[in-house]
Design goal:
Blueprint: H1 8-13, E1 21-24, E2 28-32, E3 40-46, H2 53-59, H3 62-78, E4 86-89, H4 93-96, E5 105-109
Antiparallel strand pairs: 1-2, 2-3, 3-5, 4-5
The chain binds adenosine monophosphate (AMP).
Length: 120
């Protein structure tokens, strides 16, 4: 899928709409989910234009990929959930129920997160 820069996260990155920033580095931004599903619900996104993991893994630099990984750990630290535990989720494509076509990780915690997936 080609990257569509009209998506909501691209607008956040361009400063066209606000976000509640949690952390940032040269390659990555972390901000609070607008509709939190747990006490802590932070989204981690690369600043580059990547739709999904195929796109990111194939074309992002090693530096960008390392920054993305490290930011997840940094978010857990700054939100105080590193010791109590948390879940990291990435929804991709139709079956993964990805709503925003810019690669992102959900970091959820601050309370029990529950089963991995709905078993129904
Ligand atoms: P996904 O289904 O994995 O694509 O999740 C997209 C997430 O983006 C959802 O959890 C939304 O609540 C969240 N979201 C949508 N718009 C915004 C926004 N303007 N600021 C922060 N989070 C948003």
């Amino acid at each position: 899928m080609a990257y569509d820069d009209s998506n909501i996260f691209a607008k956040i990155l361009r400063g066209e709409i606000p976000c509640n920033k949690v952390a940032e580095d040269d390659h990555t931004l972390a901000f609070e989910d607008i509709a939190p599903l747990r006490a802590v619900h932070v989204l981690v996104i690369p600043k580059g234009a990547y739709v999904d993991w195929r796109d990111f893994a194939a074309t992002a630099s090693d530096e960008e990929q390392a920054a993305f990984t490290r930011m997840i750990a940094q978010v857990a630290e700054v939100t105080g959930i590193a010791d109590s535990g948390y879940r990291v989720i990435s929804n991709i494509g139709r079956n993964g129920h990805q709503e925003v076509p810019h690669l992102h990780m959900h970091v959820l915690g601050g309370e029990a997160v529950g089963p991995l997936v709905d078993r129904s």
